[in-house]
Hints:
The chain has helices spanning 12-15, 25-33, 197-203, 206-212, and strands spanning 3-4, 37-38, 44-50, 54-56, 80-82, 85-91, 97-103, 106-113, 116-121, 135-140, 151-154, 159-164, 177-184, 192-194. By secondary structure, it is mostly beta strands. The strands form three sheets. Strands 1-10-9-12-7-14 form a six-stranded antiparallel sheet, with no helix packed on it. It has a six-stranded antiparallel sheet with strand order 2-3-6-13-8-11, with no helix packed on it. A hairpin with a 5-residue loop joins strand 2 (37-38) and strand 3.
Amino acid sequence: xxxxxxxxxxxxxxxxxxxxxxxxxxxxxxxxxxxxxxxxxxxxxxxxxxxxxxxxxxxxxxxxxxxxxxxxxxxxxxxxxxxxxxxxxxxxxxxxxxxxxxxxxxxxxxxxxxxxxxxxxxxxxxxxxxxxxxxxxxxxxxxxxxxxxxxxxxxxxxxxxxxxxxxxxxxxxxxxxxxxxxxxxxxxxxxxxxxxxxxxxxxxxxxxxxxxxxxxxxx
Length: 219
């Protein structure tokens, strides 16, 4: 596990969308084959499973700012949750980042292809001695010998952001980052919210704020 509580290096160079007017033919074919749609976090997604069994909701119901961007699904009952939901999620050269957000539920991530960087702010944890919340950052990819992850878990209440990395160090990415995410209990937009600029300032040191601001959701 790689983690840091110090100043993070600027990451804007990884977040600049490709100048191509369209995604590559390969990315376009992948989007079509998996029936992916643009995600409000950035990137593309499709829900592939929503378990038929349900559990009582462990979360108090409250209005989320996300509901202004993605209304609650028809038939939603705030008193219950599906036991789990699963999606495909794709970052591409033209949509290379997922902005800081958190879910109330636990999210299990599984890599299918590509490389990316994750940044997780432990917003519900204790403050670090040097100030701010603990910040965890790691690379997901196939090179497990170098510490890249094939699977990772983000517990509820933690803010996460992600961005596309080249398929090889110092290279250029052409195939995107494709993962699956399983949320337990199942995902609902009222259990999701984005991190604001003011919220980020309250969670991290001034130096880390400068490095992380570019990972906030792009309007």
